[in-house]
Automatic annotation (TrEMBL):
Organism: Escallonia herrerae
Pfam families: DUF1365 (PF07103)
Protein name: DUF1365 domain-containing protein
InterPro entries for this protein: DUF1365
Top-level division of the source organism's lineage: Eukaryota
Length: 187
């Protein structure tokens, strides 16, 4: 007898390397809209939302994230397609060790090119609003309630208490952000 597996919830961990922050949040992997909880680029403000979709982890993995901005529309998309590699294959050890460094160099190279083109540099929000994390929670709650009103009102997010960084849906599923400091580099 074959058992049907439904992939209903996924955790996503994002680190903004230069600022040493990390955020963990849950989302519906089939398709979800999450308020941007972390300053990941000095060329993007915090008003965007992340549209996220992924498949269930297995031998292959696909993740797609796009930024939806209230004024600029959809202006950034990133995707990852990967396949499982056995950890016993030592010939890939150097490749895997170098990959985070290669990605960091690539990111900084593209940031330098944007800076050179005079793209507006946006400071980390902590320098002008100490409440940027709470503001992300409020934006996310609004997104979830709007999605619930468009679909199932049972999924409207209720944030527990003031200043809470975790909310739960009426159906009991936790939804929110957990912020913490990230160790340097890429730990």
């Amino acid at each position: 007898m074959k058992e049907n597996f439904v992939f209903r919830s996924s955790l996503h961990l994002v680190t903004n390397t230069p600022w040493g922050e990390r955020v963990l949040f849950s989302f519906d992997p089939n398709s979800d809209l999450v308020a941007k909880p972390l300053h990941v680029s000095p060329f993007m403000d915090m008003l965007g939302n992340w549209s996220i979709r992924t498949n269930a982890p297995g031998d292959n993995l696909f993740v797609a994230i796009s930024v939806q901005h209230p004024k600029l529309g959809d202006y950034f998309t990133a995707s990852l397609t990967a396949r499982r590699v056995s950890s016993l294959e030592n010939d890939h050890a150097l490749y895997f060790w170098l990959m985070p460094h290669k990605v960091a160099v690539w990111i900084y190279w593209h940031a330098l090119k944007l800076w050179w083109k005079n793209v507006t540099f946006i400071q980390h929000p902590r320098y002008h609003s100490a409440a940027y994390k709470e503001e992300a929670l409020v934006r996310d709650r609004g997104l979830q309630c709007c999605q619930a009103l468009a679909g199932d009102a049972q999924n409207c997010l209720q944030v527990e208490g003031s200043g809470s960084d975790v909310g739960s849906t009426k159906s009991g599923r936790d939804r929110g952000f957990t912020w913490r400091d990230a160790k340097w580099p890429w730990n």
